[in-house]
Amino acid sequence: IQMSTQIINLSAQDETSGTTEGRMKWKIYKALKKEDRKRKAKDDHLPEQVNVSHARLERHKTDALKLDPRMLKSAFHRKKFAAKKKIIEEGIEKNARAEILNVEEDGFLDTEDGECSYNIGQKEIAQSVDVASATKSFGLLLPQFGPYRLNYSSNGRFLVLGGRKGHVAALDWQTKKLLFETNVLEKVNDIQFLHTETMLAVAQKNYSYIYDNTGTELHCLKNLFGVERLAFLPRHFLLVGSTKTSYLHWLDVSVGAIVSSTLTRSGPLDVMTVNPANAIIHTGHHNGTIALWSPNVKEPLVRVLAHHSSLRGIAVDPNGVYMYSTAVDQKLRVWDLRMHRQLHSYSLPHGLNEVAVSQKGLVACGIGNTVQIFKDVSTGICAQPYLVHKPGGLISNLEFVPFEDVLGVGHGGGFASMLVPGAGEANVDALRNNPYETKKQRREREVKQLLDKISPDLISLDPNEINRVNTEALEEDIQKKQSVLWVKEPTIEFTPRHKMRGRGGGVDGARVKQIVKGEDRLQKNKEKGEIFNQVFGTDEAEESGLNKSVLDRFVKKKK
Predict the structure, then answer these.
(1) pLDDT digits (tens, 9 = 90+) for 4-23
(2) pTM given for the model
(3) How far apart are CA 272 and CA 247, in angstroms?
């Protein structure tokens, strides 16, 4: 300690002095300072990085980590893929660490002992919550244009209403700011937001139309004729319409062309929903069956006999694991989409029609003029409703608001917004769905969505199929390419053009023939070299000599 103190006192003047002794003392001083920093870091009770729990890391892992770089034959590509895999692992760890910033908690409804939660009305819930949440419980009395269909934007900020008698309105339902309101003067069957809140599709009496957020008509979709229900696939930019003539249409809104049209031969398609996990369309029919459709296949991928009577409603949870169906037989059935079999069945009162599922698994059912919400339906332990509400009309449509504890109810007398504690995801991923995004952010998101657009050909029952390699097709392709490499070169027949006497004798003709044969042989070797690169990799192609050029003899060889 005394030595280090003396060195510290002399360090300033010894550094400036040019003596050998001064330089040695300065090096010793720097070494002691380094050891002192290490000792302090070791004694610090707060480590530089806190370990992340294994459960958090597993929640953010992707299938890209399952790939092994040693599968690649080229050393360059192995090194490149290993570096990319390291970046993915670092991103997963950062996402897991960022979960500490998710301070919002799921809502809940706490009751006293012996009290049933379904006896608590909307007025009591609104009085118990904060002022901002209480304003989300409201109703719109519009009896002259009902019953109403409704749809929320992907970020849960905007609402669009469509009355059966032609009334169409869009608004910011949180601030109650009206975007536009009009009457199309004909029947409205369904309404649907597209990839942004600035565009919406309306299924009218004959044709379907696209409007902007000011009510201006942008397009008339005459290909979608007699549409009963609409759905939108945001990752594929596909607008799906089911018609009363039993047709299913997939329309690409980015180019305005029909991707596929399928005749289901199952009667009017007035019950339809989309699986958000794999973009498969689910349709319910009057004979009690549910069919799963893809634009790539003209026949149903799966057909399930779900009920013994006509279907009234279908809903699929956000993870694509459970499907809920209701029918005229007063049954609510729960289906496992991984095995396509029934898990549970519940008997409900007469008048069961619409069904909707929230991000947290709460199930809402429309029963006559009453909305009943159930909890733990997929586990089979549900014995009574979670909440009950009478909005004031016959229920025509139900939809939960994304990232909010709110359920939108369309009925014969207008629209109702009811509070459902614990229905929505508490923490919003603002990179994907930002309820507070600006106009510039919305434009950037729209461009990014177009760049990340997925081809309709990749829609299948298994959403992870896009990450797999078709080994059978790949092996067949490799065998074809290998067969090209070992084919015997064909003989090149070439006869030089006959020239006048004295211009191009036997020697000149032979030279021209050799030049043409050499060029043809060089071209064939070049094509073989490219195929060899694709099959075996660059390193083996260089060893085989197929990529060699006549100029390689001027390149200095490595010692």
Answers:
(1) 444 444 444 444 445 677 77
(2) 0.74
(3) 12
